[in-house]
Amino acid sequence: MNVAIVGATSAIAEAAARLWAARGDSLYLAGRRETLLAAIADDLRLRGAAKVVTEVFDVSQHEAHHAMLSRAEDTLGEIDCLLVAHGTLPDQAACLANPDLAVREIEVNAVATAALVLRAATRFEARRAGTIAVITSVAGVRGRASNFVYGSAKSLVSTLLEGLRHRMHGRGVAVVDIRPGFVDTPMTAAFPKGPLWAAPGRVARDIVRAVDRGAGVAYTPWFWRWIMLVVRHIPEPLFVRTKL
Amino acid sequence: MIEPSGYGSWGRVFNPRQRVARMRDRTERLPLPDDGGTILPYGAGRSYGDSCLNDGGTVLRTRDLDRFIAFDPATATLRCEAGVLLAEIAAFALPRGLFLPVTPGTRFVTVGGAIANDVHGKNHHRAGTFGHHVPRFELLRSDGSRLECSAGANAELFRATIGGLGLTGLVTWAEIRLMRVAGPWVRQVERRFGSLAEFFALSEPLEQQHEYVVAWLDCLPRDNGATRGVLFAGDHDASPAPVRERTARAVPLTPPFSLVNNLTLRAFNELYFRTHGREGDAKAVPWDTFFYPLDGLRGWNRMYGPRGFFQYQCVVPEGDRGRAALEALLAGIAASGQGSFLGVLKRFGAHPGAGMLSFPRPGYTLALDFPNRGEATAQLLDALDLIVLEAGGRVYAAKDARMSARAFRAFYPEWQAFARFVDPRFSSSFWRRVTAGAAEASA
Fold first, then answer.
1. How far is Cα A100 from Cα B210, in angstroms, rounded to an integer?
2. Which among A19, A204, B71, B155 has most CB atoms closer than 10 A?
3. B126-176, pLDDT tens digit by residue?
4. Kind and range of the H or E run holding B283
5. CA of B416: how far to CAs of B35, B408, B434, in Å?
6. Mean pLDDT across the stretch B62-88?
7. Which ranges of A47-85 does DSSP label H, i.e. alpha helix?
8. A40 touches chain B (CB under 8 A)
């Protein structure tokens, strides 16, 4: 299988790439940090990847998306799976104090992702094959006081994926929305950890399985499906009084 | 941020308050704390006492530096980042007909930790310590310098860093020369012994025949006053069948009191002795069963309850003096009634350690666990220190949570030569403890 990963230096993406490498898949890694990309590529080769190619890539440069996808196909052949894993975790308080910051965060986490996913969808639809998998978040399921800038960006992506899945039905393209809960990564280093926190390796196993199955929405770890089911159904008058 | 839980040590005696710094890219700068405080690399947290802790300071999580870098099949040399677990190297090596040249009793330690403690294994009599199989590594110092260290370049820092308890800087990557093996099985023979004299007589001939030798001891008092046990010897073996990975069980929570007490110990040791060491043919066991029996029970350290436990490991020289010391240690432990779940006894070979502060030296090494019973345990272990000191032996820093500064300096007279290589921004709870008042002591 040929897998292209955008945001390939993220801890979750790296963990997923190791699982694909161990299966002998080929990987195209696009990310911002050159030295880290090189280190990850060396590692994946030793872990069994058939081929690993890297590209220093900034997802906020939308006009570069097509060229990156073309280079991926030129070097690996047809891409069977695109995993979109880039993202930032904005500081909600700072975003409220500075709406320009909030907009920038929404641009990275929602607008750039939408641009990339739509371009990839056009390509995959034309050849009626491929899987688009995007890491969103349980935070996108309901707007909450503590985290709604990030959550709204993720919910835009989730809604886009939902609609795209609808459109691609019968057109040979799988669209997978991966919704992790709390994951212990450098992005969340500042948070105190509890029993709900998962390791990147656990989330990566769920990603690989969801891609294999072409699942529509995959919560990871699984219990978040039920937690978010409850959260989504708390009546608004009650919800606004909670601290979430 | 302060993380009071997590980033502890294996004995669960301490509750350190430490900031946690992270690093994912080995080419980055060291994430030194802004307040001028100290930092200590923290790998898998399998040191038992406080040598992996930096209470009041910062620990640098190294597990995110866990990438393979290069492998040269001609020399079987693997270059990898320092946060890689030995378990990951074993998984990489075995399908290639290779194995770790030296492995401690758990595979859930990092390469950096294995270097920093210059760990040893059941093949010490043949292979020496882990550091003997590390031709080079990169050391990142707090002044930003990156030094490639080997026997030929930065040789003193090389020797200081091996066994240097993480105090000389951050090892970012290291090379390890892997060992060719016949297969993922170990052909194991067992021999019972009924006294230390029998152990001494059996041990050396077994070492000449076998790659791995180690003994299990029953340290509980017995009517005849003798110490019984079982010697295990083994050699790598071609596979009669593919090895299936064991599914690990876990201790799910910390019981409110220690499950290890005189009653459970007596039952366990009796059962163990009765089921092992019957004379008979050698049998093949999977590599993980042979090397890492306790890895099959994740979180076994929790069995000692909320107060935690101490591990005591010492080495005493060969010859009559060392043998007498060993008798005295075991008599003292038996008399104290504070026996241990598992006593381990092994003869170290002639290899001097690879580092300045390496623990192994020729002689007999004894390792035991003690549930933390407060003052009674502290007094017993202090008494054991005196016996070891008298015999010219030493206690292993990786296991230690309590030895006095005076005892440490007597065990490791090299400590002052070593101290010159300690990075000024690196420190540990252990290092501050054993060097406390050093200025007066050396004046």
1. 70
2. A204
3. 999 999 999 999 999 999 999 999 999 999 999 999 999 999 999 999 999
4. strand B283-286
5. 28, 11, 12
6. 97
7. 65-76
8. yes
Contact A47 B68 (CB under 8 A): yes
ipTM above 0.85 for this complex: yes
> Exposed (0-12), middle (13-18) or buried (19+): which is A201, by Cβ within 10 Å?
middle
pLDDT beyond 90 at A194: no
* A-B C-beta contacts closer than 8 Å: 41
Q: Would residue A150 show up in a list of annotated catalytic residues for this protein?
A: yes
Instruction: Record the pTM.
Output: 0.93
A110 in Cβ contact with A156 (< 8 Å): yes
Burial of B253 (0-12, 13-18, 19+ CB in 10 A): exposed
Annotate B299-343 with three-state secondary structure: CHHHHHCCCCEEEEEEEECCCHHHHHHHHHHHHHHHHHCCCCCCE
Domains of chain A as residue ranges with CATH: 2-239 (3.40.50.720)
Q: Inter-chain contact B67–A193, Cβ cutoff 8 Å?
A: no
Please report the domains of chain B, with CATH numbers, ordered by start residue. 185-404 (3.40.462)
Helix H or strand E encompassing A4: strand A2-6
User: Residue A43 is nearest to which of B20, B22, B68, comparing CB atoms?
Assistant: B68
Q: Scanning the structure block, which residue is given the tokens 């090596």?
A: B93
Q: With CB atoms and an 8 Å threshold, state whether A189 touches B6.
A: no
Among the partner-chain residues A39, A46, A192, the one whose CB lies closest to the CB of B25 is A39
| B221-276 residue pLDDT tens | 777 778 889 999 999 998 777 777 677 778 878 888 887 777 777 777 777 777 77
Question: Are B71 and A186 inside 8 Å of each other by CB?
Answer: no
Q: Identify all chain B residues contacting A33, using CB atoms and an 8 Å cutoff.
A: 25
Interface of B with A (CB under 8 A): 1, 3, 6, 20, 22, 24-28, 64, 67-71, 81, 92
A188 in Cβ contact with A142 (< 8 Å): no
Q: Is B64's CB within 8 Å of A186's CB?
A: yes
Q: Please state, in angstroms and rounded to a whole number, the distance separating the CA atoms of residues B413 and B352.
A: 15
A47 in contact with B, Cβ within 8 Å: yes
Q: Which two tokens stand for residue B9?
A: 């040590």
Inter-chain CB proximity A39 and B81 less than 8 Å: yes
